[in-house]
Structure prediction request, 398 residues.
Amino acid sequence: MGRVIVITSGKGGVGKTTTTANIGMALAQRNRKVVVVDADFGLRNLDLLLGLENRVVYTAVDVLSGQCRLEQALVKDKRRGNLVLLPAAQNRTKDSVNPAQMRQLISALTKVFDYVLVDSPAGIEMGFQNAIAAATEAIVVTTPEISAVRDADRVIGLLEANNIKKSGLIINRIRPKMVAVNDMMSVDDVTEILAIPLLGVVPEDEKVIVSTNKGEPLVLSGTPTQAGTAFENIARRLDGEKVEFLDLTVKDDLLSKIKSFFTRPI
Amino acid sequence: MLIELLEKIFPTLNDRNSRQEVKNRLKLILAHDRSDLTPQMIESMRQEILAVMSKYVDLDSDAMDFTLENRSRVTSLVANLPILRVKPEFYTVKGEGISQETPIEDLPEISIDESAIGDFQGTSELRNENFK
Ligand SMILES: Nc1ncnc2c1ncn2[C@@H]1O[C@H](COP(=O)(O)OP(=O)(O)OP(=O)(O)O)[C@@H](O)[C@H]1O
Ligand SMILES: [Mg+2]
Prediction:
């Protein structure tokens, strides 16, 4: 029986889909059998971030309506055969699927895959209810901004109310320089406020956009990137490894600058 | 530019920074978000609690404090209600009652063993002293 993990946030645009694509790929690189499920019906993105958009034929809605079998709708990744995508329908609304159907679909997937990662849409309405319906674990993604943290908190409450007991926090788009000058909440600030275990920290990184352009998750890139390493570490932690958190603090004060001037290698 | 430099040398100059501000705002708003209590519910709870307490004690209405707090996702109502005095009708030592006459036939009979009186002789003088 595979683990069913929903990636959710409340607020839109904080990095759920980026996280799902990268963690899915990183787990596949660890030879796990992974299916990533796009639960953002009507606004699908996950196929784009994985570069699989041209190979989508059927969607979850087609499976549920009996137009095709489940295995026909699964798109296999060409780089990693043990990663597959279950696409969402683009021409339907979130109300075209209900939680009972999602449970049915995902329970079939857990028989074959080690990990079922469900990319949730923003908000807390029907689409969110569908995304969490079958999940037993959650990854809550937030950025260190007031509205994202408030929405994350709301979602954490709803996850608890829906009996999803195991939640991990990802703080995305952190800017160490802004934290250093007290213009952004730190990882500790956000973790203390939300009071759920920290699963990972992903810095703001332009490479994320480059990777989206190419439809190639960062964890695939040959040259290591900060965000890519962060996602790899998250996948390892999910998989049960103990991995230190990246040190993203900058020593930006005058004293450190003077010190580093005198201590730099000549 | 000069200010920024000074703030970097003396971080304490920058105490009221946006990071501290946003944390304070979030903590307050989340205590309310998490409790699912409307301001009206909090107000009626406050009034009912005060009504119950006022039956027994006089409260210092100026120094009262009634707020929601949240630690590790558990909301508590923190009330500080200074008690000025207990209402007179609840004094544990009552003035009345002592003087009330009990009919003599209701009292238990008191007997005395004359032969045992001598045992207390040593202390009786002392007692008499005290009563002077
Ligand atoms: N660490 C990062 N550094 C830089 N840009 C990022 C980072 N994470 C995400 N982004 C950018 O933020 C945008 C939103 O990301 P993404 O689509 O993953 O969010 P989402 O939560 O899935 O959004 P939605 O709620 O619309 O589904 C994208 O343009 C993405 O490239
Ligand atoms: Mg998304």
